[in-house]
Amino acid sequence: MDTAPEKTDGVVRLRAHRPDDVPEVVAQCQDPEMQRFTAVPAPYTAADAAGFLAAVDAGWRDGWLAAWAVEVEGRFAGTVDLRLQEGDWAEIGYGLAPWARGRGVMARALDLALGWGFGTRGLVGVEWRAYVGNDASRRVAERCGFRVEGTVRGLCVSRGRRVDAWIGTLLSTDPAAVRLADGVAEAAFGLVRGASPEGESQGS
Predict the structure, then answer these.
(1) Exposure class string for 102-120: b at 16+ Cβ within 10 A, else e
(2) Measured between alpha carbons, how far is 151 from 165 in angstroms, rounded to an integer?
(3) What does the pLDDT look like over 4-36, one tens digit per residue?
(4) 73-76 CB contacts, 8 Å cutoff, 24+ apart
């Protein structure tokens, strides 16, 4: 597949990234929480954002990355991606702009991306990682059905130093994945998730 298939649940829209997303990507990645919990360059420039969009295009084209822009109310709000690996496995990553957090947006975006992964792509498992202390990312992952397996010391590199990270998994046989693969995320959202918004990820 050469480009991101559009997906929506009526509230959140996943779409292909566009060149006019660059200013919003820059604003998101300059956020202190993004800088703290991800490996994005600091400072983050328009050139960095343009390079990111080029990498997304190449990832879709070459078949190793499935990444979407998250759009809410017609505005770019963040990114969710599946980094595809051998054996129908993937690692998920996500980040949300500060203005869109606390509204359940990222959980909805993950549901849409995971539905594609388990349904269309036929993944057998998805892995989640986050620096220890990124409680917002962990809340979203757990809310979407990931099981946190534990802490791996020195798993990630942040600003030239090794940091401990949480790791979790969601398998295709888990109830949440079965529900998403069957394409019922939109209908089940209010029933399964409830109406209360939770913290959003600053990246994983």
Answers:
(1) ebbbbbbbbbbbbbbbbbe
(2) 6
(3) 999 999 999 999 999 999 999 999 999 999 999
(4) 75/24, 76/21, 76/24, 76/25
- Closest among 74, 68, 151, 75 to 111, alpha carbons compared: 68
* Residue numbers in the chain where pLDDT is lower than 70: 1, 183-204
Determine the Cα–Cα distance for residues 156 and 162; give it in Å rounded to an integer: 6
Domain positions in the chain are: 7-192
Only one residue has tokens 């029933």, namely 191
146 to 113, 134, 152, 173: CA distances (angstroms): 14, 15, 16, 12
Which residues, including other chains, have CB under 8 Å from residue 94's CB and lie 6 or more apart?
78, 79, 80, 81, 106, 109, 110, 137, 140, 201, 203, 204
Task: Print the SS3 string covering 76-122.
Answer: EEEEEEEEEECCCEEEEEEEECHHHCCCCHHHHHHHHHHHHHHHHCC
* Whether the Cβ atoms of residue 70 and residue 105 lie closer than 8 Å to each other: yes
- Cα of 18 vs its chain's centroid, Å: 17
Which pLDDT value is given to residue 100? 97
Instruction: Name the CATH superfamily housing domain 7-192.
Output: Gcn5-related N-acetyltransferase (GNAT) (3.40.630.30)
